[in-house]
Amino acid sequence: MRHLYSVVRFVPDPARDEAINIGIIAGADESGEWTLRAVRNYSRARRLDDRELLPGVRERLERIEALMDPYTDVQASLFPAVSPETVDEAWLTRLSAESVNVLQFTQPLPVVAESAEDAIDLLWDELIVDPTAKRFRFSKKSHAISAFNHALKAYKVLDEHVIRRTTVRSDPFCAPMDFAIHNGRVSQLTNCWSFQLPDKESLMEEITSWAWTIRDLRRNGGSVANGDGVIEIMGGSETAIYVIYVPPTVGKPEDERAFVSACAAFKDHEVNAYPVPANEADTVARDAARRLGIS
Predict the structure, then answer these.
(1) Which residue, 70, 54, 68, 64, is CA-closest to 22?
(2) Does the 142-292 domain belong in CATH 3.30.70?
């Protein structure tokens, strides 16, 4: 798949035109997957930072990274910004055009890769010097989101029937939801998780909170945000609820324990959310198409 990438550059004094590459942003509108990877070791950048600008630069990068995965922090997902910025190819182009100060982003260029993370892997050693130990690699939930987006396109589920990255409400509870399939009324809900994330405690707290909201939704019904309005969600078992997940890393007991605990929450008879691995996301898309009456 075609992705766009931009190199993140630290320019401590634009007049001197000294710069150092400190990260890469990559993503694609087709999959909706975006990621930013910054260096772990900023020692090379610090040697140029005679005005002590680097802390502010790192804070700005953290804010940009937060835009790319608004559901990483459960509190941020439950109380989103009033006007969240859309991350897409046009946004990356604007970011590049407007960056003329100490933090700059190169003009976006295309690269072909299976995912945004794979795109960065292809480019990293060519463009970045990161004097740090071997990086611990794990797959984020964006891999599951990308897989489902591809599957929805394959089954001809149009964007007009899909609400992405929204919030489900069943008073007094609310929870993030990555996908809501609807045709005037919601027929399928899907959320994504990765069981390879290092912070298992935060992951399980988010899943537990999510399951409580779904339990109440099953009992009382609710709604999902759609732009300036809301769409009804029926209670009971009428709405199909799925979890598409990145499986735990084989041989990592802490990953596997978190997965077992999460599945117990998903399969609780009052939650009834069906877990599906990311490589089988097409089964969820097929069900979405069936519920919409798409042959």
Answers:
(1) 54
(2) no
